[in-house]
Amino acid sequence: MAPGASGRRGEADARIPRTAQSGPARSGRPRRRASGWAPPSGGRGYGQGVRRRREGRRAGRGQAAAPRTSSRARSAVGWRLAARTPRRRAEVPSGSAGKEAAMARPVTVGLDGSPESLAAAGWAAHEARSRDAPLRLVNAWPGTDQKDLTPGREAAWHYWAERALGSARAELDADHPDMAILTDQIPGRPAPVLLAEAERAQLLVVGSRSIGAVAGFFLGSVGLELAARAVTPVVLVRADAHEDRQGDVVVGVEPGEPGEDILEFAFDAAARRDGVLRAVYASRVPAIRGDAPWVVDVGMSDAREESEHALGEVLAPWRDKFSEVRVFEEIASDSPARQLVGVAAGTALMVVGRGPRQVGFGPRLGPVTQAVAHHAACPVAIVPQR
Question: Domain check: are 206 and 311 in the same one?
């Protein structure tokens, strides 16, 4: 090599970026290109060219090119499509009977697949038949607005809801083949969903379940909220309630309070059964002090006569309107709640009222109605008094 050649070559190498120099790569790795490198105009990288060639082959075979989505996005979309099912719409039988049933306000049942809700559906089917009304089965599921609702949980909710509605409807169709039965799945919490459904129904029926370790209590938070806030009568049915609706109807009467809606519901229910209504008026008689026993007897007798007269006046107009109903008046000197719970055994239906009272954050049940709803061993109808 000529003298000075190595120096001139070193100067030339210094002007060439290190990453663009030729020669074998260190450790067998390909050299990186200079940071300013870009493919020629109109060119394409290796990955882009392979993708376009694949799309061209699909197009040649008559197939649409696949969308460019990541594997994570494709997985999420697949889960969503698998879990998302269209909302079940109300199914109405064809023909004139189905059209007439669709026009009538239904008897609505809150169904979640529990034994209590299935018993409520069976009881409501008999009630709908006696009213010539369609039966509507409603299932409320959490909905997509919940933060912890994953696609898997959403799919599971849909599956179990469809299964509960399908099995209940199949059983009811077998027992009542000519009845119009509608089913629906509605996203949302059970209480708000059923409160909205109650506005379009003539009766709302729900299961009354035991709440665990509290013995003798048969009303959970959802049933309590529905009974206190629904604008239509609410019937609470226990799991062991018999679907045989024949028997006495019992109504709790308070002569000093407005109760036209309550008495109308009770008389109508008795007329559609075997025509027997037991009107119970219970009140604690104040203690009577006297030196002689006959003073106490006279006082008790006078109090009973006054109660009988007051009860008779309240029932008189309804006796005339429902002349086919046999009415038995019962006067008791006891706590109203204890007396009504005591006569509930063997009763077809217990009817109590709820006034338009506002306490705290909203309406609530009175002490007598709440005790009957929790402890009565029969279906309980809670009627709002307007």
Answer: no
**What percent of the chain shows pLDDT beyond 70?**
60
CA dist 209 and 122 (Å) reads 15
**Nearest alpha carbon to residue 120 among 269, 247, 266, 239:** 239
> What SS3 class is residue 225?
helix
- Is residue 326 within 8 Å of residue 276, measured between CB atoms? yes
Q: Residue with structure tokens 């008897």?
A: 107
> Is the predicted pLDDT of residue 217 greater than 50, yes or no?
no
Per-residue pLDDT tens digits for 242-278 = 555 667 999 999 988 888 999 999 999 999 988 899 9
**Which structural domain range is residue 122 located in?**
72-239
193 plus 339 within the same structural domain: no
> For position 181, which CATH number holds?
3.40.50.12370
* Strand ranges across the sheet with 349-354: 181-187, 135-141, 107-110, 203-207, 234-237, 380-384, 349-354, 249-252, 276-282, 326-332
